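From the methods appendix. Each design record in this collection lists the tokenized structure first, followed by the designed amino acid sequence. Records were kept in a plain field format so they could be parsed without special tools. The example shown here is representative of the layout used throughout.

RECORD:
FOLD TOKENS (372 positions):
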């Protein structure tokens, strides 16, 4: 058995090199896993991996297929390695020093065994292991650089008939929502309304530039137009309010999604609402696909320079669905740069109502029992 001892001693001596070799050999597996996690938790803007939804599904299937193959190969190789180590231990000289035997046992137990488990498990199961952790991190931190975020919450398959689909608005870093909007129609699916439902804190606690005076938006899907009404005090600090039209425009539901909006949304302390200047804003999604039958809405919406039709600043973007609750989708709100109150102005609120409709559709789809 001298040749076995020779092979084992040689393998023992090159085991660090063996690890480096396998790490390099399977680099493609780790690259596949990285882009899979990125596409699931940070899909916008699109990459070659998820440029189309069907393309991403193919990428996902191939990643798991080859991951399974690499995992089986690694299992065989590492099983062979530990088999040789065991054989070497049986036929090694009995007069080896204790420190050498102890070092070998510790090396294989605490270095080579974790490496083996990693190489066997991660190629196939890595996506299922890492994705939930990254999804939690993205939910908690994707909107950190934005002043506000909103959670679009569909009621799901088992939701009560009277439970609405709602959007809860938060100041980033604050766990308490400021106010809640809901989406509804009067029975005619061509006409929808996105409107203020409840104040979740005392109105005096809401910063002026986050206070929503645009409290009702109507969607007409026959001619793809929108209108909005603002509600403000008749005088600064007064309890009586007045309602007036402050948003109008059109939307194109094609790919990419786009809006042409004219708005004059006053702040809540405006003494003369009619003096609020009217502005026209063009909006367009960065990528063509933004809504899916089997997934939540996913988009980055930017304003458009009318002079050259180029995309400019991000107005809002989706983050991720909540881990364990596909009915909830977080959206980061930026508004238009340099415009006070725009984080809850027409260019933000009009798209949000439409996105809530599509999230409500997905909430039902993702919670429908498989036997239905």
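DESIGN:
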């Amino acid at each position: 058995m001298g040749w076995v001892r020779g092979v084992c001693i040689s393998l023992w001596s090159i085991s660090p090199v063996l690890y480096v070799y396998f790490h390099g050999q399977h680099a493609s597996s780790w690259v596949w896993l990285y882009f899979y996690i990125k596409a699931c938790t940070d899909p916008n803007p699109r990459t070659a991996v998820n440029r189309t939804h069907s393309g991403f599904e193919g990428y996902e299937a191939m990643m798991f297929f080859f991951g399974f193959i690499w995992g089986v190969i690694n299992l065989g190789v590492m099983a062979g390695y530990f088999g040789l180590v065991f054989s070497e231990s049986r036929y090694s000289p009995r007069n080896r020093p204790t420190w050498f035997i102890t070092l070998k046992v510790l090396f294989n137990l605490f270095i080579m065994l974790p490496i083996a488990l990693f190489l066997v498990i991660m190629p196939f199961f890595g996506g299922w292991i890492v994705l939930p952790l990254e999804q939690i991190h993205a939910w908690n931190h994707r909107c950190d650089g934005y002043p506000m975020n909103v959670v679009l919450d569909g009621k799901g398959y088992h939701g009560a008939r009277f439970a609405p689909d709602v959007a809860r608005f938060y100041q980033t870093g604050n766990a308490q929502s400021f106010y809640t909007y809901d989406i509804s129609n009067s029975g005619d699916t061509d006409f929808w309304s996105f409107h203020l439902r409840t104040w979740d804190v005392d109105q005096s606690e809401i910063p002026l530039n986050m206070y929503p005076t645009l409290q009702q938006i109507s969607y007409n899907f026959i001619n793809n137009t929108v209108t909005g009404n603002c509600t403000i005090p008749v005088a600064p600090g007064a309890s009586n309010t007045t309602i007036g039209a402050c948003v109008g425009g059109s939307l194109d539901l094609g790919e990419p999604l786009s809006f042409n909006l004219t708005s004059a949304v006053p702040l809540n302390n405006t003494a003369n609402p009619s003096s609020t200047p009217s502005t026209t804003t063009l909006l367009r999604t960065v990528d063509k696909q933004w809504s899916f039958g089997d997934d939540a809405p996913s988009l980055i919406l930017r304003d458009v320079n009318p002079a050259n039709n180029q995309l400019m600043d991000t107005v809002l973007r989706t983050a991720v669905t909540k881990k364990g609750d596909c009915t909830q989708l977080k959206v980061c709100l930026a508004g238009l740069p340099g415009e006070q109150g725009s984080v809850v102005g027409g260019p933000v609120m009009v798209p949000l109502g439409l996105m809530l409709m599509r999230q409500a559709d997905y909430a039902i789809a993702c919670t429908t029992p498989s036997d239905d």
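APPENDIX NOTE: The chain has five helices and twelve strands.
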